[in-house]
Amino acid sequence: MNTLFLYTMSGLALFAIGLHGLIRSSHLLRKILAANLMSSGVFLIMIVGACGTDQVMIDPVPHAMVLTGIVVSVSTTAVALVLVCLVQETTNRALLWQKRKRGQGGRTDA
Amino acid sequence: MMDVMGFFDIVLALALPWLGWRLLASSDLFRAVVLFISLGLLMSLTWVRLQAPDVALAEAAIGAGLTGALFLSALRRLERLSESERRLEHAGKREEDETIPPEKRRRAKPVAYVLSLFLLVVFVLLLGWSLGQTPGAKGGLGPAVAGQMGQSGVQSQVTAVLLNFRGYDTLLEMMVLFLAALGVWSLTRVRQTQQGEVPGPVLATLVRLLVPLMIIVAGYLVWIGSSRAGGAFQGGAVLAAAGVLLLLANVTVVRQVPAGLLRWALVLGPLLFLLTAVACMGGGGNLLEYPGQSAGVWILFIESATAVSIGVTLAALYAGGRPPAPSAPEKDNEEGPGSGVDKGGKA
Q1: pLDDT digit of tens for each residue in chain B (347 aa)?
Q2: Residues B184, A78 contacting (CB under 8 angstroms)
Q3: What Å distances lie between residue B65 and B54, B179, B294, CA to CA?
């Protein structure tokens, strides 16, 4: 029971770190990594919820849902990565914020 | 023994957020991706500890392996794109600049940073609180699934849920995967490979040894999925890994796969799944309500078709674009995923 609580906290922390990274990091690739971290945290919490103890059996439905989730997250990641490559191709950088140095001006639409 | 596993659990549960933090804080993107892959492998260990072997297999193959490969190839593409620009600017300077900003902004606007951190902590605490408030139904749907296992046609509970009880989930998931492939194909075209990029002897031998083995493993995973951990997604992922390996090795067979065959392989799984689902309605049943005692056969049929399509789709996602135009010289094609299917047919 104690271990399950520990894993729940771990999933919560992963989600929080991912959310923080999603908001704070400027490079788009790192934003996608952060979104993946968030989904990992959610999966962890779901599987902990499905975990059986001595008298309760394992719930296979969340397992199936997490399996589905893993495949969906790899699909979205693939599309997002292609979009990042396109952003870099058109704006020359894969950043949401542009550096203010070297007189390159304001923000890019990324 | 129990203490050792308990200690292992503690280390694992602490290592996951720590790795996550490290990978987002690292200034080097390549290092971040490598840390992400190791995080995926640790996640897969966690799934084993949490008695979810199906998820562990999928995480190791898809979550860590294929997603990592996707990130690495995207990183390489980004670097190749910025190379020409970097030559114009100061060499090597830009890379540093673009990865450091978080820290710089942090110092520049401490108020905003503290505020965002505060909001984040409040949000997470609220989330944790609501998690604690969630009424925990003992065992959830476990007893319900166990009660219906006799009619599912398979012995593995997860496979029964995936392809029988909640088959529409998996059907829609296949469509999402298909849509992702369509999206990638409509956005870009596969870059022409550099001429004369011949794999070294080690990679060539490794591919020759590993690819047939991987195809056998994929088939085994699909077959065993009816009674143990495994199934279409794990098998398809291994097939995709074989495709990625073939793409990396730049094998000649890979480039000669006709684009038409590739398209059919992409469509095969979703199409057969959809047709089966609709055909089930023909007998007076509901969508995906397999008639009579034949559920096991139908599930195996769908799983085989979807495994092939999942493998081809994931490998096509790795290739990162639609195959070059038919008018392009044949030797320049870089669409390898289909070859995994070809070899699968022979094996």
Answers
A1: 568 888 999 999 999 999 999 999 888 899 999 999 999 999 999 999 998 999 999 999 998 889 999 999 999 888 887 776 666 554 444 444 455 455 454 455 788 888 888 988 998 899 888 888 877 666 678 888 888 888 888 888 888 888 888 888 899 999 999 999 999 999 988 766 554 567 788 888 888 899 999 999 999 999 998 888 888 899 999 999 999 988 888 777 777 788 888 899 999 999 999 998 888 887 777 777 787 777 888 888 899 999 999 999 999 999 888 877 655 444 444 444 444 444 333 33
A2: yes
A3: 15, 21, 35
Report the CATH number that the domain containing residue A80 is assigned in CATH. Answer: 1.10.287.3510
Nearest to A6 among B9, B20, B40 (CB): B9
Write down the residue that tokens 């892959």 correspond to: B37
- Which residues, 6+ apart, have CB-to-CB distance to B273 below 8 Å? B170, B171, B174, B302, B305, B306
Sign of the four-CA dihedral A20, A21, A22, A24: positive
Contact assignment for B58 to A67 by CB distance below 8 Å: yes
d(CA A27, CA B96): 12
Instruction: Name the β-bridge partners of B322.
Output: B189
- Interface test mutation site (partner A, options B26, B161, B227, max chain A beta carbons within 10 A): B161
Kindly provide the ipTM of the predicted complex, given to two decimals: 0.87
Nearest CA to B318 among B265, B243, B266? Answer: B243
Domain that holds residue A43: 2-103
CB pairs under 8 A between A and B: 249
Residue B63 forms contact with A (CB below 8 Å): yes
Contact: B310, A56; criterion CB under 8 Å: no
A62 assigned to some structural domain: yes
Query: Does residue A108 belong to any structural domain of this protein?
Result: no
Six-digit token string for B49: 């500890």
List of chain A residues whose C-beta atoms are within 8 Å of the C-beta of residue B43: 40, 43-44
Q: Which of B238, B199, B198 is nearest to B218 (CA)?
A: B238
Using the beta-carbon criterion (under 8 Å), do B63 and A74 form an inter-chain contact? yes
Question: Per the domain annotation, does A110 fall within a domain?
Answer: no
